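Posted in: Structural Biology > Protein-Ligand Complexes

Title: Requesting predicted complex, adenosine monophosphate in pocket

I'd be grateful if someone could produce the 3D structure tokens for the following input. Sequence and ligand are given below.
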Amino acid sequence: RLNSMTVDGLKPGTTYVFRVRAHTDGGYGTYGGEIELETSHEDMLAIGDPNQPTILAVSIAGGIVLLIFLVACFVISGRHCGYIKAKQDPDEEKMHFQHGRVKLPGSRTYVHPHTYEDPNQAIRDFAKEIDASSIRIERVIGAGEFGEVCSGRLKLPSKREICVAIKSLKAGYSEKQRRDFLSEASIMGQFDHPNIIRLEGVVTKCKLVMIITEFMENGSLDSFLRKHDGQFTMIQLVGMLRGIASGMKYLSDMNYVHRDLAARNILVNSNLVCKVSDFGLSRVLEDDPEAAYTTRGGKIPIRWTAPEAIAYRKFTSASDVWSYGIVMWEVVSFGERPYWEMSNQDVIKAIDEGYRLPAPMDCPLVLHQLMLDCWEKARSDRPKFGQIVNILDKLIRNPSSLKQLTQSSAWQDANAQDCLTVATLEEWLDAIKMGQYKENFSAAGYVTLESLIYVNGSELNKIGITLPGHQKRILSSVQNFQTHGAHLQV
Ligand code: AMP
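-- Reply #1 --
Done. Output follows.
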């Protein structure tokens, strides 16, 4: 087993892009993410021990025999050759040398298939070619954008037979349709996570073009929930949401922005495991500034999309977090349509004016609070997917935290006065809907309202209140408290 590679003859002050894949008797594996390295401006590349020859050490989990395959992409005077690297977020990851050592990224980065000059190469790199004779189509289960979706079975040599979903491209397709259709497979094939739909492979060698994925017995989450209205416990719902958040954390760690996260694009298997799906490119609006509002109807899913993504196409993991909040609302309301029958234009206007979806029936306060956090206007104030996973994990470990339900709207109206008098720190936290942090404060020795004068951002971090939206709410209320005393404006 080889897990290091010496690369010599490199030019100083030059960026190289490496990709690694395993080679076993079974053939080639898929490529890992790109590793971008810049040689130092001195005349020797200093990676690893500076006294050693140049060594690129790559850790491989579970590899057997490894062949390091290098695609050296010389980036000379800013120009890539071979293929271009594309990142959805250009601010991210470029590796830096630290005292002669290279920092390998903690995770892989997603490669957009359009960055390949030859899209068929992306398919070869990221998807396994399956022989059509190993597939048995059984029945039609749905309609996709490009053709039918069927269920069936896949039997690969020396593997047990499994149930699969088979998406096929309808006959008479154009070359562009074939490319767009298969782009979903070259995206999906880069992911490997229990909450992301798994690609088994593709059939491209014959006229019939197919994408084969794992089969999800319960179909899409929205219709599944509507069919089972009221039949799941809150813990089960939170478990589903936890899975979706975990899949989304994985995608955002890979710098992949989904843009169309909605319950209809989540699939559910027989164990109630939810998996993110729908990675097609064709619906992603690249060049049409009108598409959000007009004729191309439904191209930007307005109800699920963050305001900055609707207004100026700022799609980021933070806009995916907004959509995730809408998915939370869909799940807790068992598949209700967000904003009911309001028109898209009315939704856009209402959101701009500060309106947010109210808690669904029987919704735990903490969950609605988390939704509202996902719908913060400023995207940097929204939680990250990693934080959402942690919050949901805590709720699952401590189900009593789900007991406190959002109050009826009558209660909310009664309390929606400008001024509220609070006498204790607990009352204050409840009043600003931050009751979940009572323990954080008391454990840190904050007992009285007066002690709050010492609270600031770094103090909140220290006591474990890290969500930017929550910090903002607490700090602005503290400030208000300092000016108005026990008369707290909420
Ligand atoms: P899509 O084109 O991915 O939106 O798929 C269309 C419909 O086919 C979905 O809404 C699902 O009902 C069904 N479907 C797609 N993929 C699967 C799968 N892996 N397992 C079960 N049903 C699926």
